[in-house]
Amino acid sequence: KCGMDLIPLTISSAAEIGPRELVISEEAAKLMEIATSVVRRKFVTNEIRMVGKIDYDETRVKNITAYVPGRIDRLYVDFTGITVNKGDHMVYLYSPELISAQRELLLPSLKEAAREKLRLLGLDAKQIENIETSGKTQTHITINSPMGGIVIHKNATEGMYVDTGTPIYTVADLSRLWVKLDAYESDLLWIRYGQEVEFTTQAYPGQVFKGTISFIDPVLNDKTRTVKVRVNVDNSQGRLKPQMF
């Protein structure tokens, strides 16, 4: 004798039990501690861990260049790290080519062509109108910042001669950044465009930041067997810095 309570066996006919059914009594289910749940359809989730670093949003980085060859007589921003707004004065440039184009503007036969030429040389409509109204040419052109942001590169000095297209400053808008992550090829099954990503940084232990996957590199790195995944992150508070891990 084992001292256990015996459970009566109920025999059902084969017609009542399907090939994928198991029938047990209520008492047996209690002893077996069986729990049941309603079957539901939902997405399968999985946690994937990746490493990476924060970088500039390349769509929010612009170079400030010379529209015309000339001499830099003044730089309004002396060093990198300065915050500038859209339209702020950045460079005061002397250019003989600019003077020649303005003289053409004052000639009735060349006025229309000269307006377009000056526009391409970086003058706005108000500056062109002032030249026409005053009848006087300007020896210098002021180059303004095309966007608000932080000056991250300064590539020129006062007194330096530059050619058309020479980069003078680089400005980056840090209100949005990219997080570049390395995903192993075995994890690609779980990664999709538009997914929300949570990440932490060494600078703020325990604090979780969020972003959205915006790009998955179509090429696999054959040495690391990883794919670059890019995440767009809001940085309106300015806490995240490029190159953070």
* Helix-strand string: HEEEEEHHHEEEEEEEE
Helicity level: 10-25%
Residue share in β-strands = 25-35%
Derived from helix and strand composition plus strand pairing, the structural class reads alpha+beta
What is the first-to-last residue Cα distance?
A: 67 Å
Kindly describe this structure.
The chain has helices at about 25-30, 95-105, 110-120, 125-135; strands at about 50-55, 60-65, 70-75, 85, 90-95, 140-145, 150-155, 160, 165-170, 175-185, 195-200, 210-215, 225-235. About 15% of the residues lie in helices and about 30% in strands. The strands form 3 sheets. A 5-stranded antiparallel β-sheet has the order 1-10-13-12-11, with no helix packed on it. Strands 2-9-7-4 form a 4-stranded antiparallel β-sheet, with no helix packed on it. The protein folds into 2 domains: about 50-55 and about 175-235, Elongation Factor Tu (Ef-tu), domain 3 (Beta Barrel); about 60-170, RNA polymerase II/Efflux pump adaptor protein, barrel-sandwich hybrid domain (OB fold (Dihydrolipoamide Acetyltransferase, E2P), Beta Barrel), CATH 2.40.50.100. Helix 2 packs antiparallel against helix 3. It is elongated, with a radius of gyration of 34 Å. By secondary structure, it is an alpha+beta fold. Keywords: Transport. One of its GO terms (biological process) is plasma membrane copper ion transport. One of its GO terms (cellular component) is cell envelope.
